[in-house]
Design goal:
Shape: elongated
Structural class: alpha/beta
Number of helices: 4
Distance between the termini: 27 Å
Strand content: 15-25%
Number of strands: 4
Radius of gyration: 18 Å
């Protein structure tokens, strides 16, 4: 059930030469990174077949003061934001939560390094754990990663 949902300002969908970024590449990097996270017993935290990263641009957005402070600071007024939220099932340790959060933050910071250095952008990474009141899973993906018994 590990889902990483990315919400971001639509101005990041522009061509990279015009202040945008490749969100598809970011999704792939984040998914690959999530699959490397290990728990205290060195077990993979997230099941390969259940790990998903989804990104949604905001069609409309307003950020901070609308750009005045960015213009004054020489970073331009075209602010951007990225919100990364991982939701995972209850029961993992505080150390696992930290490892997951740091992994996601590291990948996001690397991906947006040029943006962080040249423009006004906010990046938030958050890990949520919840108690499900209903949890149904139907998947033909998981069996692809389950070794045959025999």
């Amino acid at each position: 059930m590990p889902h990483l949902v990315i919400l971001y300002s639509g101005n990041l969908d522009r061509h990279p030469n015009d202040g945008g970024t490749d969100m598809g590449a970011l999704c792939r990097r984040l998914c690959d990174a999530m699959l490397t996270v290990r728990d205290e017993q060195d077990r993979q935290v997230f099941p390969t077949g259940g790990t998903r990263v989804l990104a949604y641009p905001a069609a409309h957005w307003a950020i901070a003061d609308g750009g005045a402070a960015g213009e004054a600071a020489g970073r331009g007024g075209d602010y951007a934001f990225v919100y990364l939220n991982v939701r995972m099932a209850k029961g993992r340790s505080a150390l696992v939560h930290l490892r997951v959060g740091e992994t996601i933050e590291t990948v996001a910071k690397a991906h947006f390094a040029t943006h962080l250095a040249t423009r006004a952008i906010g990046i938030t990474a958050q890990v949520d754990e919840g108690h499900e009141v209903f949890d149904a899973k139907n998947s033909s993906i998981h069996p692809l990663f389950t070794s045959p018994k025999g």
